[in-house]
Design brief:
By secondary structure, this protein is of the alpha/beta class. The chain contains 13 helices and 17 strands. It has helices at residues 13-28, 52-68, 79-83, 85-89, 106-109, 147-151, 159-171, 200-211, 229-237, 253-259, 265-278, 297-310, 337-360, and strands at 4-9, 32-33, 42-47, 73-78, 96-97, 129-136, 155-156, 176-181, 216-219, 243-245, 283-290, 314-319, 366-377, 380-387, 392-395, 405-414, 417-422. Strands 2-1-3-4-5 form a 5-stranded parallel sheet, with helices on both faces. A 5-stranded mixed barrel has the order 13-14-15-17-16. Strands 7-6-8-9 form a 4-stranded mixed sheet. The radius of gyration is 22 Å and the shape is globular. The protein starts with a strand and ends in a 25-residue tail after the last strand.
Length: 447
């Protein structure tokens, strides 16, 4: 019987991309994928350390893995492992700590390359979208962020390597590819001038679309100053999924300046307007930090007003967490925990209300869904998937919808998304290769 492995990722999509790549390497080495709860022979956690809460969740997950298999190999890697190697190594539950530099060499470190035969591993059951890392590292050094210390300087993967990665994912049946990184807007900064007057990340996107046959391509995040006219054109054309994660962090210009962000709210608002003019149902998600050192009550209220005006599709809200070695850790005016918790609660309430309004505006309209898996919803099984503009949707069906892309009509709100009905006459099978062009009027979907 082949050995089993479970690889989990906490935090960002870059961590998820790395976990997926590691999983494929273990499968190629002859392992079978298992759930963390089943007590696998090898458990790997790709950790996050962006907040103290992320650190705590990592320790809890490592302890659970040890309880699930007292004799298994429990490995901590990722940003927390890179930042606090000794701290994690001293946990009795942890067998091995591997930093970010050696993370992708983990199969060799464990001496398991001899298992099975090499080659392309099949797409793991239930996986429909593939995360692919195109760069990592960040040179911007925002005041609160520890990522430059755990990920290092900006560096990019070559386009020819990424084209091969995407083609391999398509060949084994993935329907959607998500391009990820630490600071995607800096992709290719070390390559020199990009051809045709484009940015390197736009050149990469256009070549993937032209040369790989991928059905859905998603560019995971950009800062507002990085949204070029060429990228807006791609969103407008429907060739690129109409969704972008555009971190805001604060809706107050004074706080943004102290954070050392490279935009102000004026630029941010203009960029949102350009994107929604190009694709009216554009999904724009964001990150917001509350309680940054020195944030006054007036600045917080200013931020609330700006964030409400942006009408985000979804928001990740974090109370500021003091990270060792960052400049913000030495600022004056740190906010007390009760005030931060109160500000977080109000911001989360705003996030729920604005997301609800964005979804309500989609009721009755059509979209395309990549179906993922069946799950229990309101006491009965339902299929779950994501639209091209990153809305979680559900439908009841006796058929197997897994890994299919289908046009649907969005019919009603669900607690964390929307209900929908497939457009039966236009259903698409899993082997059809063409892209689905989106149209958000109330009458049609062009496929």
């Amino acid at each position: 019987m082949s050995p089993t492995v479970a690889i989990q990722a906490h935090g960002c999509k870059l961590n998820q991309a790395e976990a997926e790549a590691l999983t494929l390497r273990f499968l190629q080495a002859g392992f079978t994928e298992a759930s963390p709860e089943s007590g696998p022979d090898v458990y790997v956690l790709n950790t996050c350390t962006v907040t103290h809460v992320a650190d705590r969740k990592a320790r809890q997950a490592l302890r659970r893995a040890r309880r699930a298999n007292p004799d298994g190999l429990v490995v901590a890697t990722g940003c927390y492992a890179h930042r606090a190697t000794i701290e994690l190594a001293e946990m009795p539950e942890v067998s091995l700590v591997v930093d970010n530099v050696d993370k992708m060499r983990l199969p060799q470190i464990l001496g398991i390359d001899s298992y099975g035969s090499a080659g392309d591993a099949p797409r793991p059951a239930g996986r429909t979208r593939s995360m692919i890392k195109i760069q990592e590292g960040c040179d911007q050094v925002c005041a609160y962020c520890i990522v430059p210390k755990t990920r290092g300087r900006q560096r990019s993967l070559l386009i020819k390597e990424l084209l091969a990665d995407v083609a391999q994912r398509v060949a084994v049946g993935y329907r959607e590819v998500v391009l990820t990184g630490t600071q995607l807007g800096s992709y290719g900064h070390e390559f020199g001038p990009a051809p045709r007057g484009r940015t390197w990340y736009e050149e990469l996107v256009r070549r993937i679309l032209a040369e790989t046959g991928v059905q859905r391509l998603r560019f995971s995040s950009l800062q507002p100053q990085e949204v070029t006219p060429g990228m807006v054109e791609l969103y407008a054309s429907g060739q690129l999924c109409p969704h972008v994660h555009m971190p805001l962090q604060s809706g107050s210009d004074a706080v943004l300046k102290r954070m050392r962000r490279r935009y102000d709210t004026g630029l941010y608002a203009r960029t949102v307007a350009r994107l929604r003019e190009a694709a009216p149902a554009m999904g724009i998600t964001t990150d917001v930090i509350v309680g940054f050192p020195g944030e006054t009550g007036e600045e917080y209220e200013e931020g609330l007003r700006f964030i409400e005006a942006m009408e985000f599709s979804d928001m990740h809200v974090f109370p500021y967490s003091r990270r060792p070695g960052t400049s913000a850790a030495f600022l004056e005016g740190h906010i007390d925990p009760p005030t931060k918790r109160a500000r977080e609660r109000r911001m989360l309430d705003l996030a729920r209300r604005t997301a609800g309004r964005r979804r309500q505006a989609l009721v009755g309209r059509r979209a395309t869904v990549l179906w993922e898996a069946a799950k229990d919803v309101d006491g009965a099984p339902a299929w779950s998937g994501l639209t091209e503009h990153y809305v979680r949707v559900y439908t009841r069906s006796d058929g197997d919808l897994g890994n299919r892309i289908e046009p649907v009509t969005l019919t009603a709100l669900a607690p964390d998304g929307m209900w929908c009905e497939p457009v039966a006459s236009r259903s698409r099978g899993p082997q059809q290769p063409e892209l689905c062009q989106h149209s958000f009027d109330n009458s049609r979907v062009e496929c």
